[in-house]
Records
---
Amino acid sequence: MAERSRRASRPSGDDRQEAILVTTEALLQSRDFDSLSIDELAKGAGISRPTFYFYFASKEAVLLALLDRVIRQVEERVGALPREFEADPASAWRRSIAVFIEVFSEHRAVATAAMSVRSRNAEVHDLWSRSMLSWVDYTAEVIEAERARGAAPDGIQARDLAASLNLMNERVLLAAATGEHPAVTAGAELDVLVAVWVQSIYGVISTSK
Amino acid sequence: MAERSRRASRPSGDDRQEAILVTTEALLQSRDFDSLSIDELAKGAGISRPTFYFYFASKEAVLLALLDRVIRQVEERVGALPREFEADPASAWRRSIAVFIEVFSEHRAVATAAMSVRSRNAEVHDLWSRSMLSWVDYTAEVIEAERARGAAPDGIQARDLAASLNLMNERVLLAAATGEHPAVTAGAELDVLVAVWVQSIYGVISTSK
DNA sequence: ACTTCACTCGACACGGTGTTGAGTAATTCG
DNA sequence: CGAATTACTCAACACCGTGTCGAGTGAAGT
């Protein structure tokens, strides 16, 4: 929108804003979000602390901007996926879940920082909530469609199932990203998650005692 | 162990320690853990801020003590449960999961505070991790036993499945406790979680296209 | 009686946050 | 072209919460 700086003696505002974002994500690779001081982010971007406040209201606001980019990326990639569950449902679910895993691990630092800040910061919480909500909606919709066409058996509320599965993914991927214990075997996350999803959406209990 | 205070003019150390714990859990009912200052906890227990440090090294240490009690309670109650999966596996799983839900909601405030602090505090993180680990171990053991006796079909690693399911429970219950969105329909948590557990442990995919 | 031990707090130093107010360099406008 | 405006910058300050230090106090043990 803005036609900017044609050879400015000091870097333009957009550059500095970007520099703050880049510095923050870089520092986040090796450091805890909480341990970052605004002074560090400012210094990293080549500005003073007060100047930082010209661009962002707080370090949480920086994280919010970073998280927003990551979420947009997931949305883009998930949106680009074909919605074909008829032929091979397991593969279709697998493709969707794979997108999360990819983006989550590409931006591990931002994702884990966001998860840890979520409980204290309303904006981060809301942004994440809203995305989760849209993924849960999508999941519930597909489950209902699968039940309608007879591919999946009826059971608990589709929306509750969808919420549980999505929350499971969030937590399992977070555990994997931070190297927590317990966690799913490294590298097996996709297989394991898909197995639970498919099992609980399409599975029936074998009554053979 | 210690034979204490027979009529002391000032309250005994144990009383004050307890007062800090009580005050903290009380404040946590209505307030964010982060928003609590040590001064408030001290004032609430009728002591000065420096005196607080005589009893606890930080407010995180108070939370750690509180969390420890909650975890012990879960362990006690789960340990008291009969381990009889043969006759009615679904009910057996349901009983175990129900214990978590009960204790979790009885001490909602402590549980949610602990979850939000976990990422910043190694001791809280480790304490919780250790408990999760023991629950995952137990779950994996039972799954393997169920597979061995032919009640459950083989599938992904029992330990990975156990980890995923336990992490799902943690996250779903946290979402419920904090009134997040998305969350499972209030009151339906137990049914939903049991459904997913049973389905993914015992279920087989209906191959009827 | 004096020593020791458990406990208490006033006062301080420190570190991080957010704001204020004065300044400078490009840009726009008459 | 020169003046006003806009965009940006930072030194300095006020504030708040943390953690520590060192001097106390009173009960219990010897």
---
Amino acid sequence: MGPNAYAATCPTRLVLDRIADKWAVLVLGLLLDGPVRFNQLRRTIEGVSQKMLSQTLKSLERDDLVTRKAIATVPVTVEYSITSLGKTLAVTVDSLRIWAEAHMESVQDAQQRYDARKAAGL
Amino acid sequence: MGPNAYAATCPTRLVLDRIADKWAVLVLGLLLDGPVRFNQLRRTIEGVSQKMLSQTLKSLERDDLVTRKAIATVPVTVEYSITSLGKTLAVTVDSLRIWAEAHMESVQDAQQRYDARKAAGL
DNA sequence: CAGAATCCAGCTCGATACTG
DNA sequence: CAGTATCGAGCTGGATTCTG
């Protein structure tokens, strides 16, 4: 890494900021299976508020990770799809899922040991 | 993915929560080159407050991603090292860095186009 | 040197109400 | 159905001060 690798503008920081948004990751994962409508997403993703979902979709669209298609029915329906760019990100994030499934148990064990040590008065 | 894949307890969410902390990622990356002392980290990582660094190191240690070693000099010096578990995570996060370097320019272009469209009155 | 503790400004996010 | 607008509680994180 170069001397400015720890500056706020490095590309890695920008992706991390993006996937730091858990709703964004969940939306991308869901859309891998095909287009989904707004309220359908809302119902599927446990715990999203309508505000957060709306916000998340807007910024995913801004990043060209997701496309929005309004269909002129009455009332209007809106369909969200993942883009090819979005797919490449979703695939990459999947490597984190794999790491998690392989190692998160170790991490949680470590946390318990740490907490137990602290509780024992250090 | 199973029916509960979108619940808050899935392992993927836990890793994402971890690497959502930008300081944690930067610390892990730095420690790949070898052990570093507290204030050395503080000086190298542009923009960390002492509070955040301290907090980050503590939780990285709790997760067994980093180890802390106090050396009884006067005044005391403390050395942080990455663990083997930490290395596996750092390597995985690197795939995100690669994605970022390959695609973040497209994303930023998309953002500009999106903003321009909005500024043009939609 | 390596922190812990306190205080507080700012942002996030959920809840609620309203719209085309 | 698919959102927008507004308000307020709560958490986050910087600045500052103090310690072994």
---
Amino acid sequence: MRSYKVNMKKEIKFIPLDYDYFDYNSKNYLKIFGRDEDGKQVCLIDDFEPYFWVILNKDIDEERLEKIKKEIEKLEVNSDTRTTKVEKTSIENKEFLSKPVKAIKIFVTNYKDAHGIADQIDFPEVIARREYDIPLITKYIIDNNMQPLVWKKIAGEILNNSEEFGNIDSSLQVDYVLKAQKIISLDKTKSDSEFKPRIVAYDIETDDFEIGKGEILMISLYGEGIKKVLTSKKCSHKIDYIEYYKDETEMLEAFVKHIKKIKPDILVGYFSDGFDMPYIRARAEKHKVDLDLGLDGSKPFFSRGKLTSASIAGIVHVDLYRFIETVFSQYMQSETLGLDEVAKELIGEGKKNIEWKKPSKLSDDEWKNFFEYNLQDSLITYKLAEKLWPDMLEFSRIIQEPLFDITRQGMSQLVENYILHNLKKFNEIAEKRPLHDEIESRRELGKYEGAYVFQPIPGLYEDIVFFDFTSMYSSVIVTYNLSKSTLLEKKEKDSLEVNLEKEGKVHFTKEPGFFPEMLGNIIEMRKKYKSEYKKKEDNLAKARSNAYKLLANAAYGYQGFFGARYYCRQAAASTATLAKKAILETIEKIKKLDLEVIYSDTDSIAFLRKEKTKKQIEDILEKLNKGMQGIMELELEDFYKRGIWVTKRSSESGAKKKYALIDEKNRMKIRGFETVRRDWCDLARELQSQILELILKEGNEKKALELVKRTIKDLKERKIEREKIMIRTQLKKPLSEYKAITPHVIAAQKMKEKNLPVHIGMLIKYFISETREKKELVREKVKLEDEKGEYNIEYYLNNQLLPAVENILQVFSINIEETISGSKQKTLF
DNA sequence: GGATAGCTGTTACC
DNA sequence: ACCGGTAACAGCTATCC
């Protein structure tokens, strides 16, 4: 006789955090980790009914349809572990690429075999088989409305030593396991602010940068009420947060023990997918420490791919670096995305400064410093996580994908997931992911014609107005209905015709397509939340607005991206073409008002205000907007007191994407100049920005010229400090793959020889030195920061300082080289 | 054998 | 491979006359 227990019924409020799935009796089940309203850790078990679609022509006759359905119901796939059958089918009227279709919904035993079943379906009436390639968790969230980080009411029964699922509850380290029976969505607005995740930040220090090669010297943890440094090293200082362990093994065991005790919702690191977690795994393996951090007793899981991601069952491991890289980097001032710079910019606090030494050479006090340094890294990582929490939360809610995924996905994946989760509203069946060959042929098509850039005339200008189109490309997509599903095979009545360079004339229907409609909605949501947080300070509204803004901005790139499900080159190319047309027409209209247009790039137009008042300019803007198509809108970016455009280095013509402005509050806006390029030395960058400021503030070049002369004098007298002449260039690929051996490649090679860490993405720092023999190539004069040697005066004069200033002074007809050599001659005489 | 066009590579703009 | 095209420019390198 089997003993069996009656499970207790319970109704809870639940917030899903982390999703996982498992098989039981050949079927798929979800394990969803989260918290209840009392803050208890819960694992929810839910079943999942996997299915995919077979799409048929909508005109197929009923009899034939029934026959196909019956045939499909006979299919099965056998493997060593299970048999997957077609469980049931249903015939539905759906949309595919915005066109009505007949579809058979095919439920299968196990989702992993959906593709295998789909492959067997091969009737001539079948147009397509779809949705077997959508990740299981994504599909589950869509079908069961179990959106991450949104409170749900769940009725279910508590599993207690249950026979069900092979006693799964006893292996899960949560407060209780609930088998879901009914899921009810709540009015989420009420409880939104209530959930505060338990966040713990961690960081390790090692004695070798190569993963697993060295020893982990210490691990720090920081969170609310948590402040720890675990170490196997010795130091006489007794500090409350330092825990000393006998060796690395015990330290790692203590790390696991602490995490289990803290029970964090989120474990956050900085570059921890690529460093901390793999290192911990490697050392734990070496010492045979059981790294069972997962709430199901599992070890961290490392996904394969270009970038590995480290996941822990039931705990959301967030590598903040990755989230910042995709979501924030474009709006940040930092030149690198290192923890120090990023933290300084976002939370106003950076890393602790210490001098790096071999651990064997550290004194007692230096060890203490090292522990503090390690703790500080966790502390600022924690603060960053707190600061970015609203953004992570909103991204996860809007995209409707788990936190783990949205913090690691690129913009195209985020857009795609947003689409997948919103297709339901359109009754749409999802398009498939392109296969390898398809991607290849898409890529082979090469580029299409893009944005318009106005050819500027070099000079100093006064009273400049900048107009720009709000979310221009998105507005174009929405206005003209440009997408894969609205592209027509041939011209139709009332359709839009766009003439493209390569593909000739293409046509789009006026019948609304889901992609432009979705995008229109994104733009509206962006507007809504922007005005909401402008009215009153609200971090969540701001984060929400920002998330929608990023989605809107990425939508155009998505349609042009070869890896996209809804890739449509014609739509992307047409977007660029129509945007170009709109900006050119607007330029013409402004010119007709007797205003002088001096610059334009993609979605912005700069012109001279002349005698017109600001009010008159605003009236002009209003008038221009009245004549605008669809949701296209031009806005006033700003008024500028002065601006300068320079020539290209190689010719007399004006350089595009390179100008500097000053507004009425003396705020500078510098674009494209060496000042904003991190691969130029600080000496040149600082001099350039100073002379731009002197010129723009007063509209006169005399002081600027004096400053240039003084700086050159200092350079020649070797008064420039080393830091100012360092050149930083990023290593973008493995050293061996470089065809062109440039200075930074040489510098990286030198670093490697010195056993310094060299990895992709790193900024290589070097300077150009004097050499004994005459050397032609710059790379032959490369030296690392700590190498002995004088800087090369000729190089820094001719390749850094002069190039940075000559085009600017040229605007005032000053030839700096002649001026310098002239003054030299004067001193000679 | 010196000039230079063209390529590789990085970083910017939008 | 992990969103698009446009553009400037440095430094190296193949090619030309």
